Amino acid sequence: MKKLPSIKPNLKDLPLPALKEAITSCGQPAFRAKQVTKWLYQKRVETFEAMANVSKDARSVLEEKFTVAKLPVVAVIESEDKDAVKFGFGVPDSEYLVESVLLVDGERRTACLSSQLGCGLGCVFCETGSIGLVRNLTQAEILGQLIGINDYQVSRKDKFVTNIVFMGMGEALSNYDNFLSSLRIINAEDAFTIGSRRITVSTAGVIPSIRKLMQQDLPIGLAISLNAYNNPMRSKIMPINDSYPVEALVGIAGEYFEKTGRQVTFEYVLVEGQNDGPEAVRSLAALLGNIGCKINVIALNPGKYRNAKGPEFKKVERFVQSLFASGLNATLRKSRGQDISGACGQLSGKMITK
Ligand code: SF4
């Protein structure tokens, strides 16, 4: 029988403590681990040979065991007004691409990263959900998106990514271990140096993982995708609501604020004629009025939820004003990247542009 070639693991799949162990076990002093971390994530090298201050012996021991290959960029599409760029990265075991979006806003460069290929939670308004869950992304694949985006920024002489949102494909809190170890590297001084205040994870409401996250010393922003003002309505569009209903989400948001000092943001996608009336305003005020949170409203983007559409801009504005008038800290989120299918709920893994 033909023997399959052995596939070496990627060094970028190691959490920081394991990376340190791998380096010291090659007889290298511990400070070399910091240098290798910088080569991987700040200088974004693709070969061990490029790691000039690591001894030749250590490099060849590492090379025998690991690879430092990059996640291949298959496609890049810029939006017409240049404020959003969508990236498609290839993986060897699927026809779907891992999609990420770079959002440009003043001095801010926000990378919207994916955590899974597809998603198993099946929210009806979401293109990613319609794929189903293909698999979790590895740490190297999560960080590979950020490396690819920073490479692109260098190529167009723009600045590195300053902010991170986990709002791309997948539910990050269902891929908790790889998400958390990636987060530590994004946050680390020798790697991406992006502070907790500039990182946000969006979740459909995986409460056990939110609990684990708030025990970490990483007070990142938490955004909970709410989209409805009662359980029957939410269960209809987000099946996860049967496990973690609206009241439980409100409860965990209060706990998160208490534990981390960070106010939770509730995301509310506005669908015309369904969740945009006066009853919605009254119910949301009753539900969220006492817990110290924000509510971020965005009109539904065109996509899979074809029997529904977002209200016109004026109506969205009026809805936000009514929430504000009833005492909620409500903001209107501008949708970007629609023309490259890079806006919320539009990532299909196929780099569709229209
Ligand atoms: S909205 Fe998020 S959680 Fe829901 S299906 Fe899409 S990717 Fe998954």
Describe this structure in words.
With 354 residues, the chain is an alpha/beta fold. The protein has two domains: 11-65, Orthogonal Bundle (DNA polymerase, domain 1), CATH 1.10.150; 73-340, TIM Barrel. Helices cover 33% and strands 18% of the residues. The strands form two sheets. Strands 1-2-3-4-7-8-9-10-11-12 form a ten-stranded mixed sheet, covered by helices on one side. Strands 5-6 form a two-stranded antiparallel ribbon. Strand 7, helix 6 and strand 8 (199-203) form a beta-alpha-beta unit. Helix 1 (16-24) crosses helix 2 and helix 7 runs parallel beside helix 9. It is globular and about 70 Å long. It starts with 15 loop residues before the first helix and ends in a 22-residue tail after the last strand. The model has no long low-confidence stretch (mean pLDDT 92). The site of iron/sulfur cluster (SF4) has 11 residues, from helix 4.
How far apart the termini lie comes to 47 Å
| Low-pLDDT runs | none
Number of helices: 11
| Rg (C-alpha, Å) | 21 Å
- CATH homologous superfamily caption of the largest domain: Aldolase class I
Total separate domains: 2
> What shape does the CA trace take?
globular
The SS-based structural class is alpha/beta
- Lateral strand order in the biggest sheet: 1-2-3-4-7-8-9-10-11-12
Major β-sheet profile: 10 strands, mixed
Mean pLDDT: 92
Under CATH at level 1, the class of the largest domain stands as: Alpha Beta
In terms of DSSP E residues, the strand content is 15-25%
Topology order in helix (H) and strand (E) letters: HHHEEEEEHEHEHEHEHHEHEHE
Q: State the CATH architecture of the largest domain.
A: Alpha-Beta Barrel
Strand tally: 12
Bound molecules: iron/sulfur cluster
- According to CATH, the fold-level topology of the largest domain is TIM Barrel
Proportion of residues in helical segments: 25-40%
